[in-house]
Amino acid sequence: MPTMHIELFEGRSPEKKRELAAALTKETCRVLECEPGAVDIIFTDVKRENWATGGVMWSERD
C-alpha cells in the first residue's frame, strides 16, 4: 500500500486538503494500478517558525 507523507505550512483548509488527497489518490491509482482504498495520505501541518529553506526561517521572510 502506498503511503504519502505531505508536510505543508499550517493554514490550509480541510477542503483544500480533501481536494489534494483526492487528486493524489486518483493519480497514484492510475500509475500504480491499485485501488483507492490502498492509498494512505498523512498531512502534517508545520508552523512557519519550524521550517527553514536556505538557512532562513519561513517566519522571518516577507
Secondary structure layout:
Blueprint: E1 3-9, H1 14-32, E2 40-46, E3 52-53, E4 56-57
Parallel strand pairs: 1-2
Antiparallel strand pairs: 3-4
The largest beta-sheet arranges its strands as: 1-2
SSE pattern: EHEEE
Strand content: 25-35%
CATH topology value: Macrophage Migration Inhibitory Factor
Largest sheet: 2 strands, parallel
Number of helices: 1
What's the CATH H-level superfamily name?
Macrophage Migration Inhibitory Factor
What is the domain tally?
1
Average pLDDT rating: 97
Percent range of helical residues? 25-40%
Rg, rounded, reads 15 Å
Which CATH architecture would you pick? 2-Layer Sandwich
Which segments are poorly predicted (pLDDT under 50) over 5 or more consecutive residues? none
CATH class annotation: Alpha Beta
Explain this structure.
- This protein is α+β, with helices and mostly antiparallel strands and 62 residues long.
- The protein has one domain: Macrophage Migration Inhibitory Factor (2-Layer Sandwich), CATH 3.30.429.
- It is built from 1 helix and 4 strands, in the order βαβββ.
- Strands 1-2 form a two-stranded parallel sheet.
- Helix 1 links the parallel strand 1 and strand 2 (40-46).
- The relative contact order is 0.26.
Features:
alpha+beta; 62 residues; 1 helix; Macrophage Migration Inhibitory Factor; 4 strands
Short description:
By secondary structure, the chain is α+β, with helices and mostly antiparallel strands. Helix content is 31%, strand content 29%. The strands form 2 sheets. A two-stranded parallel sheet has the order 1-2.
